Automatic annotation (TrEMBL):
PROSITE patterns on file: GIY_YIG
UniProt domain GIY-YIG: residue ranges: 2-95
UniProt xrefs under SMART domains: GIYc (SM00465)
Name recorded for this polypeptide: GIY-YIG domain-containing protein
Coiled coil: 111-138
Source taxonomy: unclassified sequences, metagenomes, organismal metagenomes
Length: 172
């Protein structure tokens, strides 16, 4: 079990409120927010000045891992109507539903793409295959000596492993 902290960063003169969570000390986490320019609070730091914001501990929780802490953070984000853009925690069912339509659309797009570009793709695949063979000719044709005394190339390994010679050697 670890101690996780849910905190809020508030602006002194308005209702701007950002909710976050950490296992770190709050002053260290606030310092990271000040240095980081790609969070949703950073644009407010630039607009109003960092000195007009303060970090306040909402609550400490004993949690097993970051996921549990994110669930508590999401509860506070919903409760305080914060400026957080991303949802930190979604139950699996909601995640599945949110991604379902996107995945269906992507599948349909790919299906249409491959259907409409069959010839083009065949040519690309053939070109890639020929190019790969040319570049890796040595590797493909390298003879490997097996412990049973037989020889094989990588592309015939599975065939060799089924031969009587190899099977008899392994049964001894």
């Amino acid at each position: 079990m670890q101690i996780g902290r849910v905190y809020k960063i508030i602006h002194n003169q308005s209702n701007i409120c950002y909710v976050g969570s950490t296992f770190d000390k709050l002053r260290n986490r606030f310092g990271k927010h000040k240095r980081n320019n790609d969070t949703c609070i950073s644009k407010y730091f630039k607009e109003y000045g960092v000195e007009n914001f303060k970090i306040i501990l909402i609550k400490e929780y004993e949690v097993y891992d970051k996921k549990h802490l994110l669930a508590y953070e999401q509860l506070w984000i919903n409760k305080l109507k914060s400026i957080n853009i991303m949802q930190t925690f979604k139950p699996l069912k909601k995640q599945f539903e949110a991604n379902r339509q996107k995945n269906l659309d992507r599948t349909e797009y790919l299906k249409n793409y491959f259907q409409n570009n069959k010839e083009k793709n065949k040519e690309k695949i053939k070109e890639y295959r020929d190019n790969y063979r040319e570049i890796n000719k040595e590797k493909i044709n390298k003879k490997i000596i097996c412990e049973c005394g037989g020889k094989y190339t990588l592309r015939h390994k599975s065939t060799h492993l089924k031969t009587k010679k190899h099977l008899n050697f392994n049964s001894l």
